[in-house]
Amino acid sequence: MTRLLLPQIGVEPPERCDAARNRRLLLDAAALLVSERGVDAVTMDAVACKAGVGKGTVFRRFGSRSGLMLALLDHSERELQQAFMFGPPPLGPGADPVERLIAYGRARIATVEVEGEVRRAAENSPGTRFSAPARAVSVTHVVSLLREAGVEGDHELLACSLLAPLEATLVLHEIRDLGMSTERLEAAWEDLVRRVTRA
């Protein structure tokens, strides 16, 4: 069986060590602001202050607040991609495909809980919700697992349907407005996967 190669989002030429360190410092500061005060608190000034650099450094690196938010989302997507492509089972290779699919959903729910506002903002950006590279990677990954699990049918459409309950807007609504716990969402995800895969 041939393995599908998943494209990594935002692949860019390698950065100099100091540039990569500064980028990481700024993204860590932005992520900390999101977790402490919410996405609205993430301004170029606030990130510069949190990172201990000048505001100009943030603008030179990301161009705008939108650029910063996209970079923050890209950063977290890369970490998740690394985990499901190269990390340990059950999320990474080596586990049963159904168990990997369950682990993927759990990991996605966990990232929404931490940085859901950033994800929701990205999902609601005109023209990017369904065409973002990160979504394409997710669809390709789920299609691969469905095929490996022996599921029949239109794999691409089934993958899109399976990913719908993991969208940040819905997950945040379920947690914040409906009072559902992440444990309940994770259990429902596992139940859905097992029904679809008949496992």
Automatic annotation (TrEMBL):
SUPFAM superfamilies: Homeodomain-like. InterPro entries: Homeodomain-like_sf, HTH-type_TetR-like_transc_reg, HTH_TetR. Pfam families: TetR_N. Residues 20-80 form the HTH tetR-type domain. The keyword DNA-binding applies. Residues 43-62 bind DNA. Keywords: DNA-binding. The keyword DNA-binding applies. It comes from the Bacteria. GO terms for molecular function: DNA-binding transcription factor activity; transcription cis-regulatory region binding. This is TetR family transcriptional regulator. It comes from Rhodococcus oxybenzonivorans. The lineage of its organism: Bacteria, Bacillati, Actinomycetota, Actinomycetes, Mycobacteriales.
